[in-house]
């Protein structure tokens, strides 16, 4: 499995995300991590250079010049820098419960993309979750009960959507998606014409569904924990008034293989690999 972690200038959050990956159970030697940076100019790069030497899993890194919030580009670059046949996307402001990767691996199915979501912490709870609590595994004591109940109900609704084969449900949320690399490549990954917050994950789901890949939920088995931070400057609730919403509404009739995605027009690529995962672990990633 390749775990693709997007980040931009939140090294404190990223440190906790990578610690939670070090605490995963039942997947030793079965995953690689690619951190995909959106052009950070703070200490993120230095932190990753050090982390790549001490973390107990293969870690590689990509970056590019910052030019607006380009999450789709980050994720495509992360996939290009990885080699595993199964992909999991998350964000550097999320922490993963200890069984998260094992759950995604055990529930994967051909013709399916696995959909999840996250429990959202407030600012006070976020400060109480440190690397030590992640390694001990006692961070769940900081999780708000109302959020746990909310995701439980959402998970139950998702099972109804699946049984009824409801289109575009359960909905993909970009920080907790897993799917086969071959399916990702068939639609050319995330559409990089989405710049700023929102709708790139919904666009991906629409194109996957058109090639016969439907969403299944993992919410009744696992959910991420989202660490608090101020809202992104490009955030707008429900995308109201954004160019991304306008672009998504025009998706009908567009090719399932997006023009500006994993492969670029004229074969151009600005991928800057920082450190490649050792080739010796490639055989262990087949799972």
- Poorly predicted tracts of residues: 268-287
Specify the structural class: alpha/beta
Rg, Cα atoms, Å: 18 Å
CATH top-level class: Alpha Beta
Q: What is the CATH topology descriptor?
A: Spore Coat Polysaccharide Biosynthesis Protein SpsA, Chain A
> Largest sheet, order of strands side by side?
9-6-8-4-1-2-3-11
Count the beta strands.
11
Tell me the span between the first and last alpha carbons: 7 Å
Instruction: Characterize the main sheet.
Output: 8 strands, mixed
Shape: globular
The named CATH superfamily = Spore Coat Polysaccharide Biosynthesis Protein SpsA, Chain A
Q: How do the helices and strands follow one another from N- to C-terminus?
A: EHEHEHEEHEEHHHEHHEEHE
CATH architecture: Alpha-Beta Complex
How much helix, percentage-wise, in residues?
25-40%
Count of DSSP-assigned helices: 10
Number of domains: 1
- Overall mean pLDDT stands at 90
Strand content: 15-25%
Topology:
Blueprint: E1 2-7, H1 11-22, E2 32-37, H2 44-54, E3 59-63, H3 71-80, E4 86-91, E5 94-95, H4 100-107, E6 112-115, E7 118-120, H5 123-128, H6 131-136, H7 145-164, E8 177-180, H8 181-186, H9 200-210, E9 214-217, E10 224-226, H10 243-249, E11 272-273
Parallel strand pairs: 1-2, 1-4, 2-3, 6-9, 7-10
Antiparallel strand pairs: 3-11, 4-8, 5-10, 6-8
Could you explain the architecture of this structure?
The protein has one domain: Spore Coat Polysaccharide Biosynthesis Protein SpsA, Chain A (Alpha-Beta Complex). Helix content is 34%, strand content 16%. It is built from 10 helices and 11 strands. An 8-stranded mixed beta sheet has the order 9-6-8-4-1-2-3-11, sandwiched between helices. β1, α1 and β2 form a beta-alpha-beta unit. The protein is globular. The termini are close together.
């Amino acid at each position: 499995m390749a775990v693709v972690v997007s980040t931009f200038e939140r090294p404190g959050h990223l440190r906790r995300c990578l610690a939670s990956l070090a605490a995963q159970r039942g997947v030793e030697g079965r995953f690689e991590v690619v951190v995909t940076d959106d052009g950070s100019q703070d200490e993120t790069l230095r932190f990753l250079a050090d982390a790549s030497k001490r973390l107990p899993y293969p870690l590689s890194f990509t970056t590019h010049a910052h030019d607006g919030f380009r999450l789709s580009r980050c994720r495509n670059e992360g996939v290009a820098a990885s080699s595993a046949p199964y992909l999991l996307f998350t964000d550097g402001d999320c922490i993963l419960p200890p069984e998260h990767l094992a759950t995604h691996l055990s529930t994967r199915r051909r013709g399916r993309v696995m959909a999840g979501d996250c429990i959202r912490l407030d600012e006070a709870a976020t400060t109480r979750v440190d690397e030590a609590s992640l390694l001990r595994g006692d961070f769940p004591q900081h999780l708000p009960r109302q959020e746990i109940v909310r995701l439980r109900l959402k998970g139950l609704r998702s099972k109804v959507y699946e049984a009824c084969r409801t289109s575009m449900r359960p909905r993909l949320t970009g920080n907790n998606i897993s799917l086969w690399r071959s399916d990702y490549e068939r639609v050319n990954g995330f559409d990089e014409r989405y710049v700023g917050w929102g709708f790139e994950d919904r666009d991906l789901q629409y194109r996957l569904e058109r090639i016969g890949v439907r969403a299944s939920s993992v919410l009744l088995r696992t959910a991420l924990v989202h660490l608090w931070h101020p809202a992104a400057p490009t955030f707008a609730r429900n995308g109201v008034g954004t160019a991304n919403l306008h672009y998504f509404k025009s998706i009908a009739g567009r090719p399932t293989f997006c023009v500006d995605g994993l492969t670029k027009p004229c074969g151009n690529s600005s991928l800057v690999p920082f450190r490649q995962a050792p080739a010796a672990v490639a055989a262990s990633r087949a799972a």
